[in-house]
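B., you asked whether I could sanity-check this one before it goes into the benchmark set. Here's the sequence:
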Amino acid sequence: MRVALIILTLAATACASPDREKEEAIVWDLVIRDALIHDGSGSEPVSGDIAVTGDSIAAVGTIGPGRGRREIDASGRAVSPGFINVLSWATTSLIEDGRSQGDIRQGVTLEIFGEGWSMGPLNDAMKEETRRRQTDIHYEIEWTTLGEYLEYLVARGVSPNVASFVGATTVRIHTLGYENRPPTPAELATMEQLVAAAMEEGALGLGSSLIYAPAFYAGTEELIALARAAGNHGGVYISHMRSEGNRLLEAVDELIRIAREARVPAEIYHLKAAGEANWPKLEQVIEKVEDARRAGMRISADMYTYTAGATGLDASMPPWVQEGGHDAWVTRLKDPEMRRRVMREMKTPADDWENLFLAAGSPERVLLVGFRSEKLKPLTGKTLAQIAAARGKSPEETAIDLVIEDDSRVETVYFLMSEDNVRRQVAIPWVGFGSDEGSMAPEGVFLASSPHPRAYGNFARLLSRYVRDEKIIPLTEAIRRMTSLPAETFNIERRGRIVPGYYADLVVFNPEEVQDHATFEKPHQYATGVQHVFVNGVQVLDEGEHTGAKPGRVVRGPGWTGRPRS
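And here's what the prediction gave me:
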């Protein structure tokens, strides 16, 4: 790496200084001076300067006497490529507030969506249901396809770049609705065509989330066919697997099989072993993935840096009761006989569906964080055990009642994982990082719910707790795993490295000061320690404060058939 930087320095000097007069005439749009440059490769950092012209990095090394229209003294601070949030749910939070404050203040410059559900392709029935099911954030649906949604975001103005996988759940609902059955050959062909169309619009690949209805109803052969359709356009398969608990090992086998038979790279969404009885399985998961990698397969994973996950109370109830969609689910829960059956299954160990109520180990470890109903919002931040005790009912019956009363799945945090396993995963070189949350601000409509603290702290927590304080991995490796690793995994061009010609997505931060502050009790707290953030050469964070700039662009995958990719 040092040799490479010397070469770049000499090249920059040769281009910039054929004579003194020409040197003095050079004007860069931006020069970051005396930085400790972490180029994203994982190599040791090197002191030097970075010059930016327009949206791109123009030179790296010793810039010489050329002056920038804007110069930043980065002495004593690290400069890295912008961080890539490989699993973001900022799909609606960016509609509400395009500044993406929670993530921008951690150095995130690219948000990637599409865990099973994507914001397109939609049909009229899906649009109507989405309008009806909106909670605190209300918006008009002015798009139909996934590509149109991404362009809609950028037209409104967003600070980070945005990209997305196409959701296997989305194309299934588009074609089959919420029915629990395999598609006919004609229906599967339609689903494959929807995937192909999304890939041609720039989707990065196919995403699935298999513990939730109706995704749960999809068979392995269906997923292989859809993954192959994405792979035909250079796409990747990424999955919230069918189990992260009792059948974790079997779920990993399924993911590897899908990747092998579809001939695509694959990534495990938010790697974890959920439920105390399953914590020892993590080493076997790692062994399975590394065996596949040694055999030449491109299998990887990502994670968030917490021991709790966040989803809804739907993950506490069996999939059969949810067939037909939300309204059918609520109708069944109102039937006395079905209520009794659901309550019985909620507290009965089983391997045929993912029961997060049992995996948490106790209703004290099930935290309710988001309601639609104003009447129920005062319960935000209370545990299922507390609410059940106050109502004089069992936790199972209380969960059912809350779904009915709120007419929603009720946003829920489940404490499922081992801190030792989190540390072990952080150390794995093929694991990247994603928040699995929105990007919000401690103001306005966002205060109506209590998000998982990963919305404000996932990346800062990695840098502070696991890098600086516990020294599980060095800073250079953490930066590689948040930058060049996901860019290479998802075939994203010209991002994830500090290299001349790459887009100027840059983060200036103090490794000794970066810190997460969000907690489960008080999640709406910004991380600190990041001073400057640039997206496509435009400054969006200046001395820790948002500039209001919204230079984000759509980042497209290799299947895009439009203009040259950005």
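One thing to flag: The first strand starts at residue 27 and ends at 37. Otherwise nothing jumped out at me.
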